[in-house]
């Protein structure tokens, strides 16, 4: 956020508009497919609210919940069709209702509450995933998790507990949604997870949450991926990993790689992107964006896993850098990262860009892929695939040109375009100067970009260090 919240509150829309936005939330939003906000219960409460209006202080959770639903729904409705005018309108209108919800954040956290307060804050975090919103999701999710811990959602209720089966199912569902989202944010930002596996003793859900348009299989697949992501974080990027030998780290990487590939192989057909060799399987609760999420999670996790060997700013953290074992593993990991990055770019070509487009789809995975492909070109600019990798980086730059247009210039990000230009120039010059060069000699270029001793935390912006040092080339 770049400015404080307005002290004025946006009034409720008229009933017809409220129902239009609520319908959009329940029928079009990613949030509802994650099992957040039961539809019939919400619509019944909304009708009651409009028939006998309640003051804000009567129920802070209800005030926050309906305003967050209005924010998400209005962004979907007003942003339809894309384009700069619709983007600006959707951003401006939805933010007014999100400000309403955020204004009672302190009350939700510090005043007596029930699990509705957790769901409200969690829903606000998901709202901030949209590219038109400020990036508040990390702090909002952290707050939701702490509030959930205070209400013991991570623990199995005792047998003498008076909770109904419905309440137990709701607590269980919210806990696992927070878990998978926590791991997703952790591995894409490099920040530590909030939830440790050892803290949880509740079983996975056995049925989709009642009255929501969610799919149990999708949740379970996402949770399993989140568990592997947490293992990658714990085993390879924790402080203890810095004192392990190359052999130990290599063994861990191979095990986690096998776990990831086994997870992907076990995905049901309806959860996979269709290709000419894989026919489309219709699923009433799975959309194209869910396919992309699972695909990107798989390829993105491969990139993160193998970056411990292949990314130059990780090298100083490893012992025995010049060993034969390191050289072999680094070559294998670089190849895996390059293939995964190519898949991310190729899978990212068919999605609409509007105010609701999630940041992971528009920003994180494309930039991850472009950065990895650039490093692959620097590592081996005379490789036969270098030119096609340059083209893929240019495709990512084209995606950001679409974003620039769709946002009316609000999101003008030049990094992919600059990387594409430098990659193209480097590949051309290397072919011109020495077309028969052994690719291994070009690894010295990486040492120029990232000299020995360079370290980067996972949440450091890759674009910052690359942009500062590209002039070396």
From TrEMBL:
<feature type="domain" description="Xylanolytic transcriptional activator regulatory">
    <location>
        <begin position="137"/>
        <end position="211"/>
    </location>
</feature>
<dbReference type="GO" id="GO:0006351">
    <property type="term" value="P:DNA-templated transcription"/>
</dbReference>
<dbReference type="GO" id="GO:0003700">
    <property type="term" value="F:DNA-binding transcription factor activity"/>
</dbReference>
<keyword id="KW-0539">Nucleus</keyword>
<dbReference type="Pfam" id="PF04082">
    <property type="entry name" value="Fungal_trans"/>
</dbReference>
<dbReference type="InterPro" id="IPR007219">
    <property type="entry name" value="XnlR_reg_dom"/>
</dbReference>
<dbReference type="GO" id="GO:0008270">
    <property type="term" value="F:zinc ion binding"/>
</dbReference>
<protein>
    <recommendedName>
        <fullName>Xylanolytic transcriptional activator regulatory domain-containing protein</fullName>
    </recommendedName>
</protein>
<dbReference type="InterPro" id="IPR050987">
    <property type="entry name" value="AtrR-like"/>
</dbReference>
<dbReference type="GO" id="GO:0003677">
    <property type="term" value="F:DNA binding"/>
</dbReference>
């Amino acid at each position: 956020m770049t400015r404080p919240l307005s002290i004025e509150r946006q009034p409720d829309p008229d009933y017809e508009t409220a129902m239009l936005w609520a319908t959009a939330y329940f029928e079009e939003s990613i949030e509802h497919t994650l099992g957040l906000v039961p539809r019939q219960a919400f619509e019944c409460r909304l009708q009651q609210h409009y028939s006998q209006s309640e003051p804000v202080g009567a129920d802070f959770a209800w005030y926050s919940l309906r305003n967050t639903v209005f924010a998400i729904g209005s962004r979907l409705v007003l942003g339809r069709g894309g384009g700069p005018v619709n983007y600006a309108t959707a951003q401006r209108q939805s933010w007014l209702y999100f400000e309403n919800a955020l204004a009672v954040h302190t009350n939700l956290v510090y005043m007596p509450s029930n699990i509705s307060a957790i769901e409200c804050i969690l829903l606000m975090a998901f709202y901030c995933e949209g590219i038109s919103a400020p990036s508040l999701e990390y702090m909002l999710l952290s707050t939701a998790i702490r509030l959930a811990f205070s209400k013991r959602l991570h623990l199995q209720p005792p047998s003498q507990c008076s909770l109904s089966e419905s309440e137990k199912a709701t607590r269980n569902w919210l806990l696992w949604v927070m878990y998978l989202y926590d791991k997703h944010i952790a591995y894409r930002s490099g920040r530590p997870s909030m939830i440790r596996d050892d803290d949880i003793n509740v079983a996975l859900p056995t049925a989709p949450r009642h009255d929501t348009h969610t799919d149990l299989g999708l949740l379970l697949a996402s949770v399993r991926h989140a568990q592997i992501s947490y293992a990658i974080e714990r085993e390879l990027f924790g402080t203890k990993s810095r004192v392990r030998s190359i052999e130990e780290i290599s063994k861990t990487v191979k095990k986690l790689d096998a776990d990831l590939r086994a997870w992907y192989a076990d995905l049901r057909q309806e959860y996979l992107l269709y290709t000419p060799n894989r026919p489309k399987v219709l699923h009433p609760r799975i959309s194209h964006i869910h396919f992309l999420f699972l695909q990107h999670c798989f390829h993105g996790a491969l990139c993160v896993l193998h970056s411990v060997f292949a990314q130059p700013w990780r090298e100083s953290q490893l012992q025995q850098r010049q060993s034969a074992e390191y050289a072999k593993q680094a070559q294998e990991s670089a190849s895996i990262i390059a293939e995964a990055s190519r898949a991310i770019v190729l899978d990212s070509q068919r999605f609409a860009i509007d105010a609701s487009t999630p940041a992971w789809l528009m920003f994180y995975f494309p930039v991850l892929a472009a950065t990895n492909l650039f490093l692959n070109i620097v590592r081996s600019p005379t490789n036969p695939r270098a030119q096609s990798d340059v083209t893929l980086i240019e495709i990512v730059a084209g995606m950001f040109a679409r974003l620039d247009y769709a946002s009316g210039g609000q999101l003008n990000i030049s990094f992919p375009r600059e990387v594409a230009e430098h990659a193209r120039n480097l590949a051309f010059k290397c072919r011109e100067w020495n077309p028969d060069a052994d690719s291994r000699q070009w690894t010295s270029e990486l040492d120029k970009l990232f000299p020995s001793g360079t370290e980067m935390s996972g949440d450091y912006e890759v674009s910052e260090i690359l942009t500062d040092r590209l002039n070396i080339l």
